[in-house]
Design a protein that fits this description.
The structure holds two protein chains of two kinds. Chain A is built from 25 helices and 24 strands. In chain A, the strands form six sheets. A seven-stranded mixed β-sheet of chain A has the order 3-2-4-5-7-6-12, with helices on both faces. In chain A, helix 2 packs across helix 8 (159-176), helix 4 runs parallel beside helix 6 (101-114) and helix 8 crosses helix 10 (227-249). Chain A is α/β, with parallel strands linked by helices. Chain B is elongated and about 95 Å long. Chain B is 52% helix and 10% strand. The chains are: A alpha/beta, B alpha/beta. Chains A and B meet through helix 9, strand 8, helix 11, helix 15 and strand 21 of A and helix 1, strand 2, strand 3, helix 2 and helix 3 of B. Strand 24 of chain A pairs antiparallel with strand 7 (320-327) of chain B, so a sheet runs across the interface.
């Protein structure tokens, strides 16, 4: 079961016609899918779209009357291939993933899907992980839409508009036999707003009402020569004009502001609110987007309808394209449309706005200001705001240095941290090794205090990325991979390749039981439980079945043992792949699982031992070596109680979960004698009491001056 | 004129900032306002800095508002921060302006990994952080909301909601209703909400300044040893008294007397002012009670310690608290408690046999009989300590340090003060202790001695020592100190 429970959201997914839905952007998309009669849903989890799939999985029983087939795909390629159902059958389907990375993984299937096209509406909802808060490479999904002839929607971040666009996506897809991508930026996925709901619609054909016979054999539905040539032409000659007509007829793009004006702005739908805010500053719009300047809001950013572009630009002196990221595909397309139509409207875009980076309010303001200035319509208000904000920021920077960044890190008690403590200790002992890092929580080891990792090549790609390093370096490289990455890609791309090519390297698999970085979704190797999808597939057996002979399992918290397993694997005389599986359940998931059980046990009078760590403030001398080997949020500093010493001492906060790393590290590194483990025995047994009383008696006898504790 | 309120919440992942934003927006919608909230969660939720942004507007019939998804510099009315550094981050984003922004910030610090990893005191300056928020805000209110929440066993977000409730256009009961509708930990959150409302109406308590110790110095020496203060300037009485207490507890009266004798040697020197003498006495007391194996046993046996452990572990009546110490003495720790004549040859032998890296991981249950007796035996060696290898080594170090301080004082008092401060490098256990000694040796050999002998330009004496001490604490590998020493050597050449 995933990290977040969606009990309340599921209720809102059941709302009917006329009721008001209040909720998050990505939930609104999910509701819109149900209103559109989807037959199947799939995808691969990843922020900011994880919730779409998580809620559909959790809601399966409650929405069973809709007969929607739901899959948590093992990767994005599988998700994209799943849309293949819409090639032959009139089924509406949706898949979701994080872009750009997920789209890259899906690319092969996407091309093969786009070529024959679809009969049933096919929608891909991607989280456009761009700008502040993004965790992936900064590239545009737009490029995929262009190269594969997929239509791309970038709706205005307003729930009513988003919901309408989801519904229209299926119609557009069916009207033009083309899959549609809808990109939603991070904040749009997480925006909370409201819209008027409609009744959910059950698909004609679905899990509840299965299709009775398979489709006829039709070569046109295979992406295979010779029909690929026909399909290529069909994309251009039939599907594109059909889509352009639908976009214009259905008014998918919106025009706000006056009809007559010598200037105009064309903006990606997703950026409209940011633009409107700065138009407000300039006195050219208000909080209800009653603009004094014409704005063409592209809820569909590909394809453009030339007639709409020429219609908007004709008669205008200048038009500004507000398009985030690089390359400036829309600007290029608009330029070409204008040239072909011989319209002399001057085009502004990346000459006044930057090619790289998010269009924050300040960036947007500067671009708008330059555009207005170039057209002799400078806004004093806007320019004044920019100047005063600049002056203010300068003043702030003069007053104090910028605060140090606070990057994400391993959670309290994370089972992956100890493995990196062991790696750091080994590095101190025998020098650096090449570390191929991967995607997942373990990528936090690239930050302080571990500061390790030489490359990241994608999800589950670490071992593959070490192939040529292993072949050209004296020392064996170490690849780190999570169980998430292992099942996503690493097993075939990495392990199979390493076995085939006799790669001489070390692979550490972090077996924490879930796809933790994306919200603790189940994997094939997750423990089976009645609410989850885990099948308990054994990673070790899987590896051995693939021909890996050296597999060592270690408990991840045993720092000394992990270090000696690594030392052994790096120093082994035999060649070939050596895998170390570091077992340790994701602590967030574990606490969610264990806490209620423990509370119940304590209440019922069962003996329960709760452990946590503690630092002797008098013994600690304030060197903080322990922090440099741990970084646990619970292991922090506090002012020195000793009036003769100044440096802060180590301190374990009460949120310590007693994972044992502090003790392991102080042993493995021979740190200092400050660490102690406290075991609180709740509902102690008779034996516990006897032992305690005996110990107290001895204590009192030998220290008669003091009163022992009575606890 | 319609109202339009823009709120930015700065928090750390896992603190419930999203829930707080939810309560606010939910209460606003329930009262008929238009409200929109958004956030940057995702992976930042794993302990990183994160923000939540809310806009609240009066409803206008037939119109749908277009609200921003990101905060805009200069256009934020209310900033709520659950942590002080995060409040300054918002200031640095330009979101706090004198014309409109009210800031409500917790003085609580959640230290960054850089602050925690530092080899000495890497904490950011609390007063400076507060100052920058106060300077740019229209109004700033500070309180330790984290401590308030902890005292009432509720989450900090509910206390923050209470604190800002007076500034929101919604009624307090609407906010309470939002907490109830949310359904999570309702009683605790309502308790936190009411606490938060009270905080803001009262004066906000200031945070503890960094470096200020919890316990003040004891003004007088133990009863019967008052005579030890004779001949010392009154400005250093407290520090010396504290030192006497410490050394009597550590060893005996004789050691305390020896401590005072060493200070007296400096009192009559012309350049020794109170500042220098205080620092000298402070470091001297700490170094003369160095953390040997006997001391560790002594500290771990204290009865108050067990009581404190039980309290901090939140043990209830009837619970049993067991304590297990994680110790890993190596040959150095074990042999250093032996007398010099046997300890030193054995240590040399162990080094020759390369046994230095050998160590014995021990988990000793001090709350049990065996563990208690073991530590008791170690602590019982106290009377023999002055003859132990470690005590003799430490005493020799103290003598060398004092001799160098005296020599430097004659040349440059500022440098002498810096040299006194280098004592803080020598501390800890195992590798930390060895590294500290090596750094200190490097500084004396390559900075102090060349300065005293005139091989290095003396006008840079104090500065070079300060730089060297900071460099020694910059990285555990000693790269910075090596670089510094190299550049100094080139100066001499």
């Amino acid at each position: 079961m995933a990290e977040v429970s969606f009990a309340r959201e599921i209720e809102s997914l059941k709302l009917g016609s006329g009721q008001i839905f209040h909720g998050e952007g990505i939930m609104a998309v999910t509701k819109a899918l149900l209103q559109s009669g989807v037959a199947y849903v799939g995808g691969y989890q990843g922020a900011p779209v994880s919730h779409l799939l998580d809620v559909m999985i959790e809601a399966q029983d409650q929405l069973s009357d809709l007969g929607i087939h739901v899959e948590s795909c093992t990767n994005e390629a599988a998700a994209a291939a799943m849309l293949g159902a819409s090639i032959n059958y009139p089924l509406r389907g949706v898949v979701t993933w994080k872009s750009i990375v997920g789209t890259n993984v899906a690319a092969d299937a996407l091309s093969n899907l786009a070529s024959p096209g679809v009969l049933g509406g096919a929608l891909i909802v991607v989280g456009e992980d761009y700008g502040e808060g993004a965790s992936v490479i900064q590239e545009r999904t737009h490029a995929f839409a262009l190269k594969s002839s997929l239509w791309l929607l970038d709706p205005r971040p307003d729930l009513t508009t988003i919901v309408r666009m989801v519904e229209k996506s299926f119609e557009l897809s069916e009207a033009s036999n083309t899959p549609v991508i809808m990109e939603l930026r991070i904040r749009a996925c997480h925006v909370f707003g409201s819209f008027e709901a409609k009744d959910n619609v059950a698909a004609t054909w679905s899990a509840a009402n299965p299709i009775d016979k398979p489709a006829d054999f039709q070569y046109m539905r295979l992406s295979h020569p010779p029909v690929t040539f026909v399909q290529e032409a069909d994309k251009i000659q039939r599907r594109l004009p059909a889509a352009q007509k639908f976009i214009v007829d259905q008014k998918l793009n919106e025009i706000v502001g006056p009809e007559q004006h010598e200037l105009g702005i064309i903006v990606q739908g997703g950026l409209f609110n940011a633009l409107n805010g700065r138009l407000e500053t300039a006195g050219l719009s208000d909080g209800f987007a009653r603009a004094n300047i014409p704005v063409l809001v592209l809820n569909v950013t590909h394809p453009l309808a030339p007639s709409q572009i020429t219609g908007f630009c004709a008669g205008k002196k200048s038009v500004l394209i507000v398009e985030e990221g690089h390359p400036e595909f829309i600007e290029q397309a608009v330029g070409q449309i204008l040239r072909r139509a011989d319209i002399q409207t001057r085009l502004f875009g990346k000459d006044v706005l930057p090619s790289a980076g998010e269009y924050s309010p300040m960036v947007m303001a500067r671009g708008l200001s330059a555009f207005l200035a170039a057209n002799d319509q400078s806004s004093e208000k806007l320019d004044g705001w920019i100047a005063s904000t600049d002056a203010h920021l300068r003043e702030v920077r003069q007053a104090s240095a910028p605060p140090p960044p606070r990057l994400p890190g391993f959670c309290t008690g994370c089972p992956e941290r100890p493995v990196f403590s062991a790696m750091k200790l080994l590095r101190q002992e025998s020098g650096p090794v090449h570390v191929a890092a991967d995607i997942g929580c373990h990528a936090f080891a690239t930050f302080a205090p571990f500061d390790q990792g030489n490359s990241i090549l994608g999800y589950g790609m670490s071992l593959a990325s070490a192939a040529a390093v292993a072949g050209t370096q004296k020392q064996r490289p170490v690849s780190v991979m999570g169980d998430g990455g292992f099942w996503h890609n690493g097993l075939l791309t990495g392990v199979a390749g390493a076995v085939l090519n006799k790669q001489d390297s070390v692979l550490v698999v972090m077996n924490n039981g879930y796809s933790s970085a994306t919200g603790a979704q189940d994997l094939p190797s997750s423990a089976p439980n009645p609410h989850g999808r885990g099948k308990g597939v054994d990673i070790e057996k899987t590896l051995r079945g693939m021909g890996v002979t050296s597999v060592t399992r270690v408990r991840s918290y045993g720092v000394s043992k992990v270090r000696s397993a690594l030392r052994k694997a790096l120093g082994a005389t035999t060649k070939g792949l050596k895998v170390i599986i570091a077992d340790g359940e994701c602590q967030l998931a574990r606490q969610r699982r264990v806490r209620p059980l423990e509370a119940k046990a304590v209440a019922s009078g069962t003996r329960v031992v709760r452990s946590r760590f503690w630092v002797d403030p008098e013994v600690c001398t304030g060197d903080h070596s322990c922090m440099r080997l741990s970084g646990c949020p619970s292991l922090t500093i506090k002012p020195n109680e000793d009036p003769l010493r100044r440096d802060p001492v180590a301190h374990v906060q009460s949120d310590c979960v007693g994972c044992g790393l502090c003790g392991e590290v102080s042993h493995a590194a021979q740190l200092c004698p400050s660490f102690a483990q406290i075991d609180v025995i709740q509902n102690p047994s008779v034996l516990d009491r006897l032992r305690r009383n005996a110990a107290l008696a001895v204590r009192r006898w030998l220290s008669p001056a003091h009163q022992g504790p009575d606890a | 004129m319609s109202r339009h309120l823009r709120i930015l919440i700065a928090a750390l992942g896992g603190e419930g900032g999203g829930v707080l934003a939810g309560w606010i927006a939910d209460a606003a919608v329930a009262e008929g306002f238009m409200a929109q909230r958004t956030s940057i969660p995702g992976v930042a939720q794993r302990t990183g800095a994160t923000t939540y942004y809310i806009e609240i507007m009066d409803r206008a019939e037939g119109q749908s508002a277009v609200m921003a998804l990101s905060p805009c510099p200069g256009e934020v009315d209310l900033v709520v921060a659950s942590e002080l550094l995060e409040a300054t981050r918002v200031v640095h984003g330009g979101f706090v302006t004198q014309d409109r922004t009210t800031v409500i910030s917790s003085t609580q610090r959640v230290f960054t990994i850089q602050e925690r990893m530092a080899m000495g005191d890497g904490r950011a300056d609390v007063q400076q952080m507060r100052g920058v928020v106060e300077r740019f805000a229209r109004q700033a209110t500070f309180a330790d909301f984290g401590a308030i929440a902890a005292s009432a066993s509720c989450h900090v977000n509910s206390v923050l909601l209470g604190a800002i409730s007076l500034l929101l256009p919604m009624q307090p009961d609407s906010l309470r209703a939002a907490i109830r509708r949310d359904g999570r930990a309702v009683d605790a959150n309502l308790r936190g909400f009411d606490l938060g409302r009270n905080v803001v109406t009262q004066a906000s308590p200031g945070p503890v300044a960094p470096g200020t110790p919890d316990r003040p110095l004891r003004a007088l020496p133990p009863v019967g040893l008052e005579d030890l203060l004779e001949g010392l300037p009154s400005g250093i009485h407290a520090t010396v008294s504290e030192g006497i207490h410490r050394l009597v507890d550590f060893q005996d009266e004789a050691l305390a007397r020896s401590f005072v004798q060493k200070i007296l040697r400096f009192v009559s020197l012309p350049n020794a002012d109170d500042e220098l003498l205080n620092e000298l006495a402070r470091h001297l007391a700490v170094r003369m009670s160095s953390e040997d194996t006997i001391r560790v046993a002594q500290l771990k046996l204290r009865d108050e310690r067990l009581l404190r452990l039980a309290r901090e572990a939140k043990a209830r009546d009837g619970d049993i608290v067991e304590v297990t110490e994680f110790l890993k003495p190596g040959p150095e720790e074990l042999l250093s408690v032996l007398p010099l004549w046997i300890g030193r040859p054995l240590l040399v032998a162990s080094q020759r046999l390369r046994l230095s890296s050998l160590s014995f991981p021990l988990k000793i249950r001090t709350s049990g009989i065996f563990g208690f007796l073991l530590l008791k035996m170690l602590a019982a060696m106290k009377p023999w300590r002055p003859k132990s290898l470690r005590a003799i080594q430490e005493a020799a170090w103290v003598d060398e340090w004092l001799t160098l301080v005296e020599a430097s004082l004659a040349v440059d008092p500022a440098a002498a003060l810096q040299l006194i401060e280098t004592a803080s490098l020598v501390r800890g256990y195992g590798d930390t202790w060895k590294r500290g000694h090596a750094s200190w040796r490097c500084i004396t050999d390559d900075v102090v001695q060349p300065m005293l002998s005139g091989r290095l330009p003396r006008q840079h004496f104090a500065d070079a020592l300060l730089q060297a001490r900071l460099a020694a604490q910059a990285d555990p590998e000693g790269h910075r100190l090596n670089d510094l020493v190299k550049s100094l050597k080139s100066l001499a050449a």
